[in-house]
Amino acid sequence: MKILIGNDHAGTALKEEIKKHLEDAGIEVVNYGTDSTESVNYPEIGQKVAEELVAGKGDLAILICGTGIGITLSANKVPGIRAAACYDATTAHLIREHNHANILGLGARITGSELAKDIVDSFISAKPLGGRHQERVDMITAIEKKYSR
Ligand code: RB5
């Protein structure tokens, strides 16, 4: 499995911990930065990682900002992305199983690193359930197509 990861300045420290956690488990991680605590704009990173994911550069992605909200909102503007910020492990596996989410958002100013690692493990180990859930995901895609230029 290959995981793409990106973050703004608020998420740099948590990103380092998550990256190490994944690599220690033998998972390939592609880091899109930032690797600094200098202020950057989360929409640019959310967009970049989202575009790389829909281009097939990885299997799933993780985006980190202060709340996990701004960076996932940005990623969700890229067609084919279903990104959701999670603050607990249960929601993290349900967004994979029911919503077929392909990006997990984390809030570095909200969630401690140990819980964040559990959330990541829950997200990457869950599988889309398909069936009635696929039909609903297809409905989300239809909305996206309706408003795409
Ligand atoms: C940066 O200060 C902060 O606004 C950003 O990390 C994020 O929380 C936005 O949603």
Summarize the structure in short:
By secondary structure, the chain is an alpha/beta fold. It is built from six helices and five strands; from the N terminus they run E-H-E-H-E-H-E-H-E-H-H.
Secondary structure: elements and pairs:
Layout: E1 2-7, H1 12-24, E2 28-31, H2 42-54, E3 60-65, H3 69-75, E4 83-85, H4 89-97, E5 103-107, H5 113-125, H6 132-146
Parallel strand pairs: 1-2, 1-3, 3-5, 4-5
Helix pairs in contact: 1-5, 2-3, 4-5
The structure holds D-ribose.
**Shape call:** globular
- The CATH C-level name is Alpha Beta
CATH topology: Ribose 5-phosphate Isomerase B, Chain: A
Order of strands across the biggest sheet? Answer: 2-1-3-5-4
Rounded mean pLDDT score: 98
Oligomer: single chain
Helix-and-strand structural type: alpha/beta
Q: Could you estimate the helical fraction of the residues in percent?
A: 40-55%
Radius of gyration: 14 Å
Question: Largest sheet at a glance?
Answer: 5 strands, parallel
CATH architecture call: 3-Layer(aba) Sandwich
Give me some keywords for this one.
149 residues, alpha/beta, Ribose 5-phosphate Isomerase B, Chain: A, five-stranded parallel β-sheet, 6 helices, 47% helix, binds D-ribose
